[in-house]
Specification:
This protein is mostly helical. It contains 2 helices and no strands.
């Protein structure tokens, strides 16, 4: 996994978690959903990069 892509995935996961938590705290369903979606995007990016790494070995 390239360091740049790994960092992007971690940032997306962390900001998504923060959005989800904030959304739950204030009762905002839209913000909660956006946070979950951002986390899933980060998870998908990370999985894609891990798959690339497996193919290299």
């Amino acid at each position: 996994m390239t360091a740049n892509e790994k960092a992007k995935a971690k940032v997306e996961q962390a900001s998504g978690a923060a959005k989800e938590t904030a959304g739950r705290a204030v009762g905002n369903e839209r913000l909660t959903a956006e946070g979950r979606a951002e986390q899933m995007k980060g998870d998908a990016r990370q999985a894609k990069e891990k798959t690339k790494d497996i193919g290299k070995h």
